[in-house]
Every structure is written in structure tokens, then in C-alpha cells.
Amino acid sequence: EWIRHRSDMVSLEAARAMCQLRDVTAKQLTGAVNALQVFLSSPRPTVRFAAIRTLNTLARTHPEAVQPCNVDMEGLITDSNRSVATFAITTLLKTGNEASVDRLMKQMQGFMTEISDEFKTIVAEAVRSLCRKFPGKHSVFLAFLSGVLRDEGGYDFKRSAIEAIVDLAKHVPECKEAALAHLCEFIEDCEFTKLSVRVLHFLGEEGPHTARPSMYIRHIYNRVVLENAVVRAAAVSALAKFGAAAVADPSLQRSVRVLLQRCLEDREDEVRDRAAWALRMAGGERTRDKYVRDDSTFALAVLERKLVEYCADSGAAARGRFSFDSVPRISRAQEEETRARTRLETMDAVLTGSAISAPSASKSATATSEPGTPAAASAGFADVYEQQAQYVSKLNAIPELAAFGAQPLVSSQRAVDLTEAETEYVVRCVKHVYEAHIVFQFDVTNTIPEQVVEQVEVAMEPEDDISDVLQPVVVVPIPELRCDEPGTAYVAFERVDMDTFPSAAFACTLKFVVKECDPATGEPEEGDEGFEDEYSLEAVDLGAGDFMQASYLPDSHALWETLGADAECVETFALANFDSIAECVARVAELLGMCPLEGALTPKSKAAHQAVFTGKWMGTTKTVARTRMTYQKGTGVTMELAVRSEDQGVSELVVSAIA
């Protein structure tokens, strides 16, 4: 009724409120969308802006509901109000289909010359997201992006266009060489040093793996001759990657060495040093593998945190130098995954208008997520290390557990729900494995407004007798737990036998003292001594995968061969309870507790898949696992698991994680 009100403001607010409702269906939104569609043709810019912004927000969750407005929104691309035009474009990119891409791109080409760099940047970022959505239209996107690179524009705009082309080259193999050719053309006349360096780095990464790498070498060496010192140094590094690539033929390597020797006469120290280093690295296969071909990098968030802690500790320098051994390494693909997720979050904020005024809001929200929250649990694999570092800080702040901090934390598993979300008490468990101790963290939330619970602890009883392996040593209760105020309890076990790694199930019971309280104030009733009560929880399992540190190990193929067949364990499993390979490989990764290498969790075929995982048992013993899976309807998944490590016993334990 309010949506059909004669006042535009009332009608708009009613439609906006309807679009913000949770669990609303596309059919229920029809009235609100129809009203907003009418407002798109309003003569007043403020009304058009309010309508298109509401539709833009709605397109995040219900793009199919907004699709009937696509024709009206395309008419707003040339709107005199550039805010309206920008929202129209970004909304169309969410709701449009592949058939409308050509028409949309043609309209945007004329639009780009009429807007400022700020809006050009937003459009370029939106086109970048469209590249992922419709990879089959890569030729159209590439033509558009290469065209805007030739136009006048500032650094941010050109950077966005470059990153969009880089994304296309990475994710659409059919257009890689064409994309690289456009990037080569761009650096021939680029006024921004940072962008030239970015393109040269990407050419060094991808150029050696193309059919004609010599074509890109010519463009790279031109930069050594014509550019400033920073660009020349980047060009030398790119040349070094062509010479060190495993796929490079001897004649190409000789040509690269000749070019690098010429760079030894450069007038800039940095350029000469890089050229000398590259020639030295070309001396042997092992040297190239270690210093040039190694695609691993440090988990930067953890490195930053550990450096800050080291500098803040006044006695750290006296105990020794900072050790990089405590900083986990991740693959470049995992690092790019983290950056891509951050870009998507930023892009999502841009599309809703919030990033224009607060570009870092999304990032800040992610960075401050508490360990064990759904936001943290859904983060990319590289962020698991940052989450673990937060756990370490939290555990070390508890007096009863602070002594464990002298041991390295091997792993912190993802939080597991021990109750349903709608129950009186919501409990989640996180397992922390130290060298000599195992700590169970229980995050508890009381959802009953009329009660305050005190002395909250979790009683854990192993279903089998493991007293000769594990002994309980510490129980840390929650003193008081009010409604909707989460608290954390801990139970710690000591490993009695350091050579045994138990697999066990623990029956868990939440024990506490209940006191009645005033729901308005949350204060317990005076004189109420309360009564003891308990609440049954789901069992907590301790498995072999909990003792594995999910570490990225570079060049897993060479490591597999180095470990050899002597410490190999192979087993075949019939997993009839899985309905797809994707479901099976996700569960296997969880049970093994290892780091999935690129492509391991994204099978390209529904019938067969191979996956590789790496890790360090107890943080020290290097381990590689290979799986081969086949799926048949009716029989489920058949999987062969082969594990090699530096210890035969470890290989057998890893295989037992599945059994």
C-alpha cells in the first residue's frame, strides 16, 4: 500500500524497506521493483539516483529480480548526472546476460570520454568483474580495455584497466597472448613508472610459457634501453625469468644471457646488480630452482604481526635474531586468491556506493574478525595463518595456558559447531595442537534472557581409554555468561607419550550454575544461589589431520621424487556416501589437514580428478599426498591415496586419517 503512495519520498522509502527485508523472494519484490522502475524515468535527478542506488543494492542478492529494469537502466548510462550513470552501469554488470554484453560495451565506449577519472576507475573495476562472469566474451572485453588504455587518463584509471587485462590473461587461456600483446604495446608509451613495472613483472611471469617467448623479450629489452632506472631494473628481472624458465630452450637461454651481459654496463647500480645476480643464478639447475623458480612467498599478515611482536619485546634482541622459520609460506596462487577476495569485497562496496567514501571499510571489517567467527572461517586459505596468529595471542594472554606459548603451535583447526544455532546454548569448538599439549577452545553463547549462568565449563570424557597417551591438565571455566555475551572456556590435555598420536572421540557436556535474572537489566536476583545444571553437546573428534600443519611446500613434484618410494604408503578407498567428487575432495582436505595446491579443490570433471596436498607433520616432517578419484553414480567415489613423507610412520598415520 505504501509503495503506491502519491508521495515519491514515501513510495521510495517503502520500496527500499521492502528490498532490505531478509529471506524475501523475487516474487514478493515485484511490487517494489516495479515502483523503482517507474522512478528511473523521473525528471528529478534525486529520485532517479535514489531508485538506481536501491536497485544496485538489491542486485547483490536478487539480480534476477532487477533484470526487468535492464532496458530502463541502459537508458541511464548517458544520464547527465554522473552518479546515476555510474550506478546504472555497475548494476547492469550484475544483472545483464551474455547476450547484452556487446550492446553494453558499445554504449560504454562513448560514455567513457564524457566522465572524470574517478568514474572511469569505477567502470573499469566493474568491467573487470564482468570478465570473470562471462569469459566467453573475452575478445569484446579485451578490445574495450585496450581502447581505454590509449585514451588520456590518470594513474588509478590506467591501473584498473591493466589489472582487468591481467585477470583476463590469467583466467582465460584463449586470450593470454592477445592480452600480453596489448600490455607490450602499452609499455611502449607509458608515463607511469609503477604501471610499467607491474606489466614487466607480469610479462616475466607469463611470457616464458607462451608459444613465442622471444616476441616479448624484444619489448622488455627496449625498456632497458629507453626507460628510467626503476623500469630498467624491472626489465632485467623479467629477462632473468625468461632465461631461468624450465620450458626455455638452450638457444633462448643463450640470447637472454647475452642481453643480461650488456646490462652489466648500465650506469645504475641496481640494474647492474640485478643483471649480475641473474647471470649467477643461471649457473645451475638447483640454484635456479631455489632462487628463481620458487613460487612461494611469506604470509605477509603473519610476517607483519611477528615483526611487530618482536620489536615490541624488549628482550627479544638479546635472545637472538628474528627467525623467518616461524613465518609460514604460501604459494603465489594463494596470495593472489587473498588479493582477489579483497578486490571482490572492495568491488562489492564500490557497486553499492560505500567504497567511494570509505574504501577501506570492507578490508577493516575483515581484518578485525574475531577468530572462530563465520567471517574468519570463510576467509581464504592464506588468512588461516593470520587467524592462527590471533589464536596464539589470545591463548598466551590466559595465565593457565601461557606456559604453552614456549612451544610452537602446530595447528589450529576450523571451528566446529557442537549445537544447533537455535538452541538455548550455542557452543563451537576449536582444537589447538602444540608440541606437547592439545587445547580445546569452547566458544559459548547463552541465548536465554531470563538466566545468567556461572562457572561454565566443559567436561570431556574420551570414549576409549587413552590415559596412557593423554592426560587432562587444565580446565579454564567462564566465570559468568549473560545473555548474548559470548565467552570462552578451555580444556587442555598433556601428551604423555610423545611418539603416539591418538585418534579419539570425546563426549562433551556443558556444566554450569544457573541463576534467574531480570531480562531488562541482566542482573541476577538478590539472594539467588542458583542450581547446577548441564547440557549435552556433540562429540569432539581428535584425528591424525589435527597433528598436520597445512604448509605450502614449493615444487611438490620434485619433493615427491626426493622423498622416494621407501616412505610411501598407498591405500584405495570406496567412499560410497559422497554424491560428487567436489564434495569428496573437500572432505578429504579437511580430514588430512594439509594445504591443497592450486586446482585441488576445484575439479574440472565430474567423473575423475587428481589433487595434491602438502604439509608438515607436527610442523617439521615434510609430507606430500596425492589423490586420484573417480565417480560413478550409484557406487560413489573411489579414491586412491598415496602419501610420501620423511618418515614412513607419518605416511601411515596420514593415510589412517581417511580410514
3D architecture notes:
- By secondary structure, this protein is α+β, with helices and mostly antiparallel strands.
- Helix content is 46%, strand content 20%.
- The chain contains 27 helices and 19 strands.
- The strands form four sheets. Strands 3, 4, 5, 6, 8 and 10 form a six-stranded antiparallel β-sheet that branches.
- A hairpin with a 2-residue loop joins strand 5 and strand 6.
- The radius of gyration is 29 Å and the shape is globular.
- The N and C termini lie far apart (61 Å).
Q: What's the β-strand tally?
A: 19
User: Sheet with the most strands?
Assistant: 6 strands, antiparallel
* Category by helix and strand content: alpha+beta
The end-to-end distance, rounded to whole angstroms, is: 61 Å
- Global morphology: globular
Unreliable sequence segments: 350-380
Helix content: 40-55%
Number of helices: 27
The averaged pLDDT comes out at 82
Radius of gyration: 29 Å
Question: How much strand?
Answer: 15-25%
